[in-house]
Specification:
The mean pLDDT is about 80. The longest helix is centred in the N-terminal third of the chain and has 14 residues, at about 5-20. It is elongated and about 45 Å long. The chain starts with 6 loop residues before the first helix and ends with a helix. It has 4 helices and 3 strands; from the N terminus they run αααβββα. Strands 1-2-3 form a 3-stranded antiparallel β-sheet, covered by helices on one side. It has 2 domains: about 5-45; about 55-95, no CATH class. Helix 1 crosses helix 2. Strand 1 (about 55) and strand 2 (about 65-70) form a beta hairpin. It has about 100 residues and is α+β, with helices and mostly antiparallel strands.
Amino acid sequence: MRKQYTVEDRGRLIAEVRATGEPVKKVADRLGVSVSSAYLWLKDAPANAPKFAELVRLPSTAAAELAVQVGPATIRVGAGFDAELLRSVVAALGSDSR
């Protein structure tokens, strides 16, 4: 039976290969991903694909607040936020080609 990989598995591999410049085989082996899958994911990933956003735990006391981290940027989101605006901001930060 073939292993089913998650979106996070794909994102982690693509991000590591692009960030470190290591050979695909080396990153795939380290992450437990088949080399053929790794090459397919990289081939299918657009060159300017957005970085994946990550939810981070805040040390604040506000229970209705969360943080979304995209690359080096952290966006604090409180209750009643505009979801469409947040999507736009995350997309803009993720497409930054720094």
